[in-house]
Amino acid sequence: MSKLGFAGKFPGGKGHVEVKLSLLKFKEDGIVFIYSPSLDLTGYGRDGRSAKRSFEVTMEEFVNYTTHKGTLEKELKRLGWKVGGSKRAPKFQQPFLDELFKARPYLGEIFREKEFQRYDEEVMFPAA
Fold this sequence. Notes:
alpha+beta; two-stranded antiparallel sheet; 4 helices; 35% helix
């Protein structure tokens, strides 16, 4: 089964890893949701723009909190990510889609019951 569109690279000396993260956008009860299956994070709003901003805030809080606590890699592993490489060139690989369906039953609901749009966004994780 294919991955949910993850690609990562280490921009030399910038202290972060850029990753392409797949997101699902769907509407329920008049609210627009943006959901990241591989991070299990959601943003929402009255329209796509406000849902995207909500997701950005959620993502920023996730990265800031786990980085401050020193638990980013541990949390990614808990979410099913494979974490490796070195401090200088870390590698992050998100879980495969079939693993995500097993771990997050409501992901199946989205695929079965909602009209959704999948798209990729670049996000950054700290390298150290």
